[in-house]
Amino acid sequence: MLELATSTWGSGARSVLLLHGLTSSAESWWRVAPVLADLGFRVVAPDLRGHGASPHADDYRISSYAADLVSLGDHWNAVIGHSLGGTVALAAYSPGWADRLILEDPGLVMIDRDEAARWFTDESQLKASPAAVRATYPMWDQGDVLAKAVALDQCDPRVGSASREHNPDWDYVPHLSRVDVPTLLLGADPALDSLVIPALGRPLATANPNVTFQTVAGAGHSIHRDSFDTFMDLISGFLEA
Q1: Angle at 153 between CA 149 and CA 157, to 5 degrees
Q2: Residues 6 or more apart from 172 whose CB is under 8 A from it?
Q3: pLDDT (tens digit, 9 = 90+) per residue, 68-93?
Q4: 20 to 30 A Cα–Cα from 98, which one of 134, 165, 208, 211?
């Protein structure tokens, strides 16, 4: 278990935990977190192991990512996880840990190992410069571009390949089937590289009545960066329901 660097916003009575994606950091929530704080949440966002200001590691199993979260709190009104962060949220989940989950295009299952290798390698090999990030993600706000460039510079160069190699049996569909709290599962637009396509998300929502699935048209894998206003409308409505 590692001690994680964290960022916090707000001091409300309700609490929300934000978990970033691969090769990002807590700063990836720079626009999301203040809005949640204004809604009355105390917001906590860690840098996952190997990312941001948190320690690098020899072990990048999902279970180890999840174990690091224990010291941050044992009950959250909501947990929001993007990509790898959504996977970690499912691995960490147990009854009483969170009242609600929001999973933003999480990595649920690794069916095609070659395709998975592309996902992990593309991010970890992206040059840590604003120009390179802007060229790859033209829809992003400049603040997101700068935060990603810094995060790429900070993260363990092994984190992408090791997160894939250390998790050969990557399948968190069973974890989602057991979730017993309201859960919003967001999939990116399949035309823009989605991890949770409708053919995966819809059956999961049908199988577990606690899960609501929605595809966000026009948004790529990083929905909160590609379509910030839509993302905030969706999660604000879900949190206040």
Answers
A1: 125
A2: 62, 87, 90, 91, 106, 107, 108, 109
A3: 999 999 999 999 999 999 999 999 99
A4: 165
